[in-house]
Structures are given as structure tokens and as C-alpha cells.
Amino acid sequence: MGGTFSSLHVVMLGLDSAGKTTVLYRLKFHEFVNTVPTIGFNAERVRLAGPGAPSRGFSCHLWDVGGQEKLRPLWRPYSRRADGLVYVVDSVDAERLEEARAELHRVARSPENQGTPMLVIANKQDLPRALDAEEIRARLQLEQLEASTPLHLQPACAITGEGLEEGMGRLQQLILKRRRRRRSQKC
């Protein structure tokens, strides 16, 4: 079941209503599942095709942590020592992008997460007023993080699943690259 990735620990964060739980269950069941706001967390073992042939897939334990303001202090203990982070952003909610940016930077810059590979999902790209990936990149000020945090921005739609597998495949590549770099530094 993925060998190297059998114990992969990935944490999904983001503001409330960004679509984290919809992403989780789209990846788990490969279909849309109607969800309710997360109070606490959801956790699932998810099998992903990964880049290339399906036989090269991987599995991970994916934690979806609630995004309401009162739950955000939980992000730190859940993200500690994660192999990868997924940060989901609502591409339509331009009014909350500053808040999303502040929380994203806080997570990426915490000492426990320094250098942890990150996938930023620009969700809800199917909606009419969705900001495109470059506008999301600029508003989240991702260039300020990229020097210390390997990251990939992926436009996606959690309802249809468009972009999710591709994004997770890119996260897998970032995690592998980090592991290889760490192994070579130990030698």
C-alpha cells in the first residue's frame, strides 16, 4: 500500500468554509460528499494515484482540522512533525483572503513547520467570481514563503475533484525531494 508512504502524515488547514472536508472526502471516496462544518477534526487514510501510473500511488493519513477561529490553536499540535501540509483557500471569498494569508504565514513560519512541504489549494475555481491562481498567489504573498517552504499552488474544485489528485501528486514530489535532501545531509 504505497510502501514508503504507509505512514505519511498530512494535515489539511484553512479558514472555515474553505472546503477542507469536501477535499478530504473527494480524495477518499472519489465522489462529492455533502459535509457539515468541522468541529474538531476528521481523519482518513487516503489512497492516491500519484504521478505516473496508478501502481506508483501512495497512501497517507490525512487530517482535516476545523478552521473556525476558536479551533485554530489546535492547528499547531496537529501540524507538528507533519510530512506535508495542505492549506485550502476559498478562491471566491476575496474579503477573507487577508485573514487566510495571515494564518497561512503563521503556520508556515512556526518553528515546527519550517521547511515542511506545502500544497496550497485554490478551491472553488468552478464558481463565477473565483480569483485565478496568480491573483491568489499575489494576495497570499506566497513569494515570501517560497524561500523557506517548498510549496505548490494548485487551482482546484473539491466538488468535481478537478486539480486535487494533481496537487497531491505535487505534494508527494515535494515530500520525496525533502526526504532525499535530508538523507544526503546525514551522509
TrEMBL record:
Keywords: GTP-binding, Lipoprotein, Magnesium, Metal-binding, Myristate, Nucleotide-binding. The keyword Nucleotide-binding applies. May play a role in apoptosis. May act as a tumor suppressor. Belongs to the small GTPase superfamily. Arf family. It holds the Pfam family Arf. One of its GO terms (molecular function) is GTP binding. GTP binds at G14, L15, D16, S17, A18, G19, K20, T21, G67, N123, K124, Q125, D126. InterPro entries: P-loop_NTPase (IPR027417), Small_GTP-bd (IPR005225), Small_GTPase_ARF (IPR024156), Small_GTPase_ARF/SAR (IPR006689). Mg(2+) binds at T21, T38. This is ADP-ribosylation factor-like protein 11. SUPFAM superfamilies: P-loop containing nucleoside triphosphate hydrolases (SSF52540). The keyword Nuclease does not apply. PROSITE patterns: ARF, RAB. It comes from the Eukaryota.
